[in-house]
Specification:
With 306 residues, the chain is an alpha/beta fold. The chain is built from ten helices and twelve strands. It has helices at residues 29-45, 58-70, 87-95, 123-137, 157-170, 188-201, 213-225, 243-250, 265-276, 294-300; strands at residues 18-23, 48-53, 75-78, 100-103, 117-120, 145-151, 176-183, 207-210, 235-240, 256-259, 284-286, 291-293. It has a six-stranded parallel β-sheet, sandwiched between helices. A six-stranded mixed β-sheet has the order 7-6-8-9-10-12, with helices on both faces. α5 (157-170) links the parallel β6 and β7. α1 crosses α9 and α6 (188-201) crosses α7. The two termini are 37 Å apart. The structure holds beta-D-fucofuranose (GYE). Beta-D-fucofuranose binds at residues 27-28, 30-31, 104-105, 158, 186, 212, 214, 239-240, 260.
């Protein structure tokens, strides 16, 4: 193999590290920022990056991982579109001696030796932050608060966990009622479509909880088209805090955003280097995150990177 003259970190013996990354897709603003972070930091680290986009389909990701195994990359990293069904392909990578790193989303495999580490957010905690804000806002309500929920991709870790964390926090107040909950697949188009259906079926929606900004932004279009004011007639909570979401919050259309940090590239490249060097690595690396009200979004917006 040629010597690494790129000025980045090289593995022992000066061989350039090859990283195969199987991405979920390009479903949201969060994903776009995540992809850019991974590509930029791989370049910065001097690694050769093989990158694939699975268009939100597990079968495509499995195919990509198998092709990385065949190409004998040094490390495979991926963001699993759904939680289950990974054991076989992860076992194939292990048998081939290729270490795997999970980023962003978790798998539910019982065998923890199938991957080196999982780098990403605590999605249950994100759901809890959303639920806690709502529980506080309506703590003295004497009337029912009707909530509709736009879930992320069915079977994905962020959809499962953001739902669970939210439910945990609103359970204490029986006035808080989820009257409808459906997937919007983390996309704007689906968020709009499902919100339209919710508005048709329910005349008395008080709150929308969307598992990401893009679905909330799609839903806002549906709410406005129905002659209602997002943020006033319907209180909106979402997750991510990407630029467009933060702008909607600053405009008062989203009332509360829970941050989910997509800039996982630098941490991933560090982990790749450690794995290649045979160093010990933490089994779980959690991303630090905050929350934003409309006021806080207005302040933070000018310095937002994504
Ligand atoms: O919140 C959403 C994206 O897995 C954390 O996927 C990620 C989620 C993110 O489509 O916008």
């Amino acid at each position: 193999a040629p010597a690494n003259n790129g000025g980045g970190n090289a593995a022992a013996g000066d061989k350039k590290i090859t990283l195969g990354f199987a991405q979920v897709g390009a479903e949201s603003g969060w994903r776009t920022a995540n992809t850019k972070s991974i590509q930029d930091s791989a370049k910065e680290a001097g690694y050769e990056l093989k990158f694939s986009d699975a268009q939100q389909k597990q079968e495509n990701q499995i195919k990509a991982i198998r092709s990385y195994i065949q190409q004998k990359v040094d490390v495979i990293a991926f963001s699993p579109v759904v939680e289950s069904g990974w054991d076989t392909v992860l076992k194939e990578a292990k048998d081939a001696g290729i270490p795997v790193i999970l980023t962003d989303r978790a798998v539910d495999s019982a065998d923890k030796t199938l991957y080196k580490t999982f780098i990403g957010s605590d999605f249950v905690e994100e759901g809890r932050k959303a639920g806690q804000w709502l529980a506080d806002k309506y703590k003295d309500s004497s009337e029912d608060v009707n909530i509709v929920e736009l879930q992320g991709t069915t079977g994905s870790a962020p959809a499962n966990d953001r739902k669970a964390g939210f439910e945990e926090k609103i359970a204490a107040n029986p006035k808080l009622k989820v009257i409808a909950s459906q997937t919007g697949d983390f996309t704007r188009a689906k968020g709009k479509e499902v919100m339209q259906a919710f508005l048709k079926a329910h005349k008395d929606i008080d709150v929308l909880y969307a598992h990401n900004d893009d679905m909330a932004l799609g839903a806002i279009q549906a709410i406005e088209a129905a002659g209602l004011k997002p943020g006033e007639d319907i209180v909106i909570i979402s997750v991510d805090a990407v630029k467009d979401g933060m702008q909607a919050a600053a405009d008062g259309k989203i009332n509360f955003i829970v941050e989910c940090n997509p800039l996982l590239g630098p941490q991933l490249m560090e982990a790749v280097q450690a794995v290649v060097d045979g160093k010990e690595i933490e089994a779980r690396i959690v991303t630090e995150e905050t929350t934003f009200t409309s006021e806080q979004a207005k302040e933070a917006l000018p310095s937002r990177q994504y």
